[in-house]
């Protein structure tokens, strides 16, 4: 894809040049005037999200499409980098479980991304914020199963079908958006990394969201697709239980979702973790299978975690989970150790992989995230990327 925009490291307007924009394929370039008109001059009533890197507005485009318009703040150096990453990663990929990128706008200091608008917000603003009683959405068991399978298929596509493979790095509830039919769309690719051929891992600054970070990535900065699989496992258990991975309002022994799931698994009582809001109307065997898959994905050893294509087959029942040995989740060992360990030295600068060296079929959305990320923006104008594991100590 002709998208070599990196004129220099750092930030600022000169990092995005018009020549680079002109060479982008498969992405429509919008005029700033069009964006102003679409949002009624960025009317506050049209704002649907706000975070550390800017704001997101609902807009009506000239062609009649309703769009989510992500406006990055001009002074944000991190925002420039994530803007470039987002375009670079998603402009050529398309999948039914990925948000669709309509285009972008770069004029002067303005950096804007235009996506398809999704009517039903994100999982953290709906299911995890009280489900039906607060969002008005009925998350019955069939809907939850559809969401889990859809996210798994989207990740399997990124991990195994796209070349080079894409590691999302920030799979979590706030980055799963829901359309009118409650079909899930993965968003926020600002932290995404490419996995070049013949490489076992990418060494990079640790970034992501506390509670979803795989221990081996948090401790050593070694990124593989198994880090996404760990995050998905946490998300899977959140969807089944309708509770966040950490809830300090609960008694201490119940606060950490993975710990609680493991305790119940050992006692053969996983069904107790299923959301009580379902009022008993669910397939208990299937729900417990989903929770076991979540535990399978969050095992301490990355080698023991299944691939995402295998996860899809386990979720749909094409493969049997009961034949697989499940070991203790990573949170209980490595993550607890982070309380007493000092900061981990970064392995390398957060180098970008030049996408021009590869070919890639397909299109989608995203932005950034971190251990301290502002989740107020469901279309991910996001928050600052936290690097050092030392920042986890005061949070976990």
TrEMBL record:
One of its GO terms (molecular function) is protein serine/threonine kinase activity. Transmembrane segments: none annotated. CDD domains: STKc_IRAK (cd14066). It comes from the Eukaryota. Residues 356-370 have a biased composition (Low complexity). Gene3D superfamilies: Phosphorylase Kinase, domain 1 (3.30.200.20), Transferase(Phosphotransferase) domain 1 (1.10.510.10). InterPro entries: CR_Ser/Thr_kinase (IPR052059), Kinase-like_dom_sf (IPR011009), Prot_kinase_dom (IPR000719), Protein_kinase_ATP_BS (IPR017441), Ser-Thr/Tyr_kinase_cat_dom (IPR001245), Ser/Thr_kinase_AS (IPR008271). The keyword Metal-binding does not apply. Residues 346-380 are annotated as: Disordered. Residues 42-321 form the Protein kinase domain. Keywords: ATP-binding, Kinase, Nucleotide-binding, Serine/threonine-protein kinase, Transferase. Belongs to the protein kinase superfamily. This is Protein kinase domain-containing protein.
């Amino acid at each position: 894809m002709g998208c070599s925009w990196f004129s220099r490291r750092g930030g600022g307007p000169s990092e995005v040049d018009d020549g680079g924009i002109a060479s982008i394929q498969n992405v429509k370039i919008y005029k700033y005037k069009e964006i102003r008109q679409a949002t009624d001059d960025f009317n506050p009533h049209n704002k649907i999200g706000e975070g550390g890197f800017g704001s997101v507005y609902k807009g009506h485009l000239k062609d009649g499409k309703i769009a989510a318009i992500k406006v990055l703040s001009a002074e944000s150096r991190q925002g420039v980098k994530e803007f470039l990453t987002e375009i670079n990663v998603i402009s050529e990929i398309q999948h039914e479980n990925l948000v669709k990128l309509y285009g972008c706008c770069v004029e002067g200091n303005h950096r804007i991304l235009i996506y398809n608008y999704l009517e039903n917000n994100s999982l953290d603003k709906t299911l995890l914020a009280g489900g039906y009683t607060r969002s008005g959405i009925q998350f019955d068991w069939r809907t939850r199963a559809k969401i889990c399978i859809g996210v798994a298929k989207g990740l399997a596509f990124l991990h195994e079908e796209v070349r080079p493979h894409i590691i999302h790095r920030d799979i979590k509830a706030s980055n799963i958006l829901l359309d009118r039919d409650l079909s899930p769309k993965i968003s926020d690719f600002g932290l995404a990394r490419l996995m070049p051929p013949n490489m076992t891992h990418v060494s990079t600054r640790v970034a992501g969201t506390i509670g979803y970070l795989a221990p081996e990535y948090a401790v050593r900065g070694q990124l593989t697709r198994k880090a996404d699989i760990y995050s998905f496992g946490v998300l899977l258990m959140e969807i089944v239980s309708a509770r966040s991975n950490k809830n300090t309002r609960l008694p201490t022994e119940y606060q950490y979702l993975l710990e609680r799931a493991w305790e119940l698994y050992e006692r053969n009582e996983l069904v107790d973790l299923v959301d009580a809001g379902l009022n008993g109307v669910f397939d208990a065997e299937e729900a417990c299978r989903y929770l076991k898959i979540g535990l399978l994905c969050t095992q301490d050893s990355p080698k023991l975690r299944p691939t995402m294509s295998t996860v899809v087959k386990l979720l749909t029942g094409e493969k049997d989970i009961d034949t697989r040995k499940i070991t203790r989740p990573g949170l209980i060992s490595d993550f607890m150790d982070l309380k007493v360990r000092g900061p981990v030295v970064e392995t390398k600068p957060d180098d970008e992989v030049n996408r021009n060296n590869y070919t890639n079929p397909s299109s989608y959305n995203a932005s950034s995230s971190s251990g301290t990320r502002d989740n107020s923006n469901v279309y991910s104008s996001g928050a600052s990327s936290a690097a050092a594991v030392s920042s986890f100590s005061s949070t976990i």
